[in-house]
Specification:
The protein is mainly alpha-helical. The protein has helices spanning about 5-35, 35-65, 85-110, 115-145, 150-174. The structure holds hydroxy diiron-OXO moiety (OFO).
Length: about 170
Amino acid sequence: MLLKKIETALNKQIRIEAESSQVYLSMACWAEIQGLEGVAQFMYRQSDEERLHMLKLIKYVNERGGHAAITDLKAPKTAFGNFKEMFTELYQHELFVSDSINQLVHVTFDEKDYATHNFLQWYVAEQIEEEALARQIVDKLKLIGDDKGGLYFFDRDMQALTTAATKADTDKEA
Ligand code: OFO
């Protein structure tokens, strides 16, 4: 049985994961209408991943005797200036999510809820990966600057990265 305080904290994180999914979905749409198909695919995938993070939390809360709350969500921005700005926002957003996960882990520790503490380690590891990937992408875009040809190859790289990640997931499931 979950303590009320833990249930509330997990529900807050459910909302953050749902909002993250919406933020990345909005970035996917913006990239798509700019004609960068690879970036759009990457962002659609990020959005799907955030939804899976949300669902994993929902299942956990319900299985432990809590009630996962499905709430209204903050509407994301719909335009992002340029791709460097957009990926910088993605990176900042991941830092915000990591901070939120850390606070959540802290609450479970304070309340001696070691089962939830253990469950959250998956999110801690995931955030390390996502932060690192976002930072790498921002660094790449800084190198590219305003070079249109560079952006074209960057888009192809993003497409290849997304295809490889999706294949790795499919192989894992098989
Ligand atoms: Fe939910 O994984 Fe990052 O934000």
